[in-house]
Specification:
By secondary structure, the protein is an alpha/beta fold. The chain has eleven helices and 13 strands. Helix 1 packs parallel to helix 2. The longest helix has 21 residues. Bound molecules: UDP-4-deoxy-4-formamido-beta-L-arabinopyranose.
Length: 340
C-alpha cells in the first residue's frame, strides 16, 4: 500500500487519483487542517475506488506509529505540511514545528517498520532568486526568503542525513515550480481557504465574481512586460511525476539513495501572459489593476527539466491555456456544488 500524507490536499488528491488509476492501493492520512473531506468523494467519483482514510496529525507520533503497526506500508508520498509563505513569516514557530516534527515522526516510523521509499514534496523556493535560468538541480540553494521555504530546505537535509544513517531508506525530493489547474473532470481542484495567496485561484475567483479585482503585484520588473515570470505546471502532470519517482525507487534505480528533481514545464510565463491566456481560453474578461510589488517576490524563475525528462522519463504535457481552462471549469463546478 502507498501511504499519501496530506492526500486530501490540492496536489495530494491529484496524486491519489493517479496512483489509484495505476492500480496502487492507497491510504491517506490527513488532519484536514487545510483541506475538505469531500475531496474523497471527488477521488472516488473519478476513479471508482475508495482509498483508506484516517484523520489525524502526523505530529502525534503514537497515532502515526499505530498506523504503521496496523498497516503494511510499501512506500510513502509526503505532502502534509503548511505551505503559505506569508503565514510562515507571521507564525514561524508554527511552521517549523508542524513541517519538521511531522517529517521526523514519519522518518522514525518508516525506519521502525522498514519502509524503504519516500517521495518528498519540495519546492523551487529552495533556489530563491536564481543566478541563471533555467534553474537546474545543481543551482546553489539560497538562503530561504521565508520560514516556509526554510522548512523545505531543512526537510531535504533531514531526509538526506537519515539516508546516510539508514542506507536501506531511499528518497526522491520533487521541487515543484508553480502548480496550477485542476483535474480534467473538474471534480477535484485547488481549494484555498479564505483569500487566495496564489495567482491562479485569485484569477478564477475574480472571474467568478467572488473578488472585485485582481491586483498585479508590480509591472516595473526587468522582464519583457514588466511582470514577474514563473513556471506554471499542470497539477495532473505534476501528480504523474510522483508515480514516476515511486516506480524509480521500487525498481531500486536510484543508487545514490537521495535524488532531487525539478518539476516544471521548462517555460516561463509572466503574470500578464497568464491573464491573457486565461481571457483567451475562457472568453472571460478579467478585471485587474497594476499594484505595488509584493515583498519577497522572485522576479524570474523557471525550471530546467532535463533531469526529470531523462531520468524519470517524465515530461509536462498540458499547455498553459488548457490548464487555465481546467482551473476555470473547477471554480464553476465547485461554486455551484456548494451553492446547492
Ligand atoms: C505568482 C506570481 C505574484 C497573486 C508561491 C510559493 C511557492 C509555492 C507556489 C508552495 C507572482 C503574482 C500573485 C496575486 C499577483 N507554494 N501575483 N497577484 O509566489 O511564485 O510561489 O506559491 O509550495 O513556494 O512561494 O506563486 O501564485 O503567489 O505568485 O500579481 O493576487 O503572481 O507577484 O509574481 P509564487 P504566486
Amino acid at each position: 500500500m502507498i501511504l499519501v500524507t496530506g492526500g486530501t490536499g490540492y496536489i495530494g488528491s491529484h496524486t491519489v487519483v493517479e496512483l489509484l488509476n495505476e492500480g496502487f492501493d492507497v491510504a491517506i492520512i490527513d488532519n484536514l487542517s487545510n483541506s475538505n473531506i469531500r475531496v474523497l468523494e471527488g477521488i472516488t467519483a473519478i476513479t471508482g475506488k475508495k482509498p483508506l482514510f484516517e484523520q489525524f496529525d502526523l505530529c502525534d507520533a503514537s497515532l502515526l506509529n499505530n498506523f504503521f503497526k496496523n498497516n503494511r506500508v510499501d512506500a510513502v508520498i509526503h505532502f502534509a505540511a503548511y505551505k503559505a509563505v506569508g503565514e510562515s513569516v507571521a507564525s514561524p514557530l508554527t511552521y517549523y514545528h508542524n513541517n519538521l516534527v511531522s517529517l521526523m515522526n514519519l522518518l522514525y516510523a518508516m525506519s521502525s517498520y522498514n519502509v524503504p521509499a519516500l517521495v518528498f514534496s519540495s519546492s523551487c523556493t529552495v533556489y530563491g532568486e536564481p543566478d541563471s535560468l533555467p534553474v537546474t538541480e545543481l543551482a546553489p540553494i539560497k538562503t530561504a526568503t521565508s520560514p516556509y521555504g526554510n522548512t523545505k530546505q531543512i526537510c531535504e537535509e533531514i531526509i538526506h542525513d537519515s539516508i546516510k544513517a539508514h542506507p536501506k531508506l531511499k528518497s526522491i525530493a520533487l521541487r515543484y515550480f508553480n502548480p496550477i489547474g485542476a483535474h480534467e473532470s473538474a471534480l477535484i481542484g485547488e481549494l484555498p481557504i479564505g483569500v487566495p495567496n496564489n495567482l491562479v485561484p485569485f484569477i478564477t475567483q475574480t472571474a467568478f465574481g467572488l473578488r472585485d479585482c485582481l491586483k498585479v503585484f508590480g509591472n516595473d520588473y526587468d522582464t519583457p512586460d514588466g511582470t514577474c515570470i514563473r513556471d506554471y505546471i499542470n497539477v495532473t502532470d505534476l501528480a504523474k511525476a510522483h508515480i514516476a519517482a515511486l516506480k524509480r525507487m521500487q525498481k531500486s534505480e536510484n543508487e545514490s539513495g537521495f535524488e532531487v528533481f525539478n518539476l516544471g514545464t521548462g517555460m516561463g510565463s509572466s503574470v500578464l501572459e497568464v491573464i491573457n491566456s486565461f481571457e483567451k481560453t475562457t472568453s472571460v474578461r478579467l478585471n485587474y489593476i497594476f499594484a505595488d510589488r509584493r515583498s519577497g517576490d522572485v522576479v524570474k524563475v523557471y525550471a530546467s527539466t532535463d533531469k526529470a525528462n531523462k531520468i524519470l522519463g517524465w515530461k509536462a504535457e498540458k499547455s498553459l491555456d488548457e490548464t487555465l481552462l481546467s482551473a476555470w471549469k473547477w471554480e464553476n463546478f465547485y461554486r455551484k456544488s456548494i451553492a446547492n
